[in-house]
# Entry
Amino acid sequence: EISCSLVGSEMCIRDSLYILSAYNDRNTAVTLLSMGYDRRALKILQALPSSAVVEYLRAIAFERLGEPTRALHHYRAACRLDPDLEYRGNLDPEISNLKKIADEKKM
# Structure
């Protein structure tokens, strides 16, 4: 069990990452993304089976790593699997920025 003086604090996230480090699952990838370890998160996400959430998280990781074409590919895959993610993409800064770039460049 994790005990944190401030839920959501950096220390709590580090504690979570320590506990989750034995697992290469979506929760570990989300924790890594929240800490800015995007490349490590992507490595885990690439090994996971495709699902709407995994594709969406891959899109965020690729966008953060400066690969908008790959990010857009994964975002579109996520939306095909779960059309509700199109709306969610408007709320995430990385995805909404990606969508804006795609519209401008007609990607």
Observations:
- The chain has a mean pLDDT of 86.
- The first helix runs from residue 10 to 20.
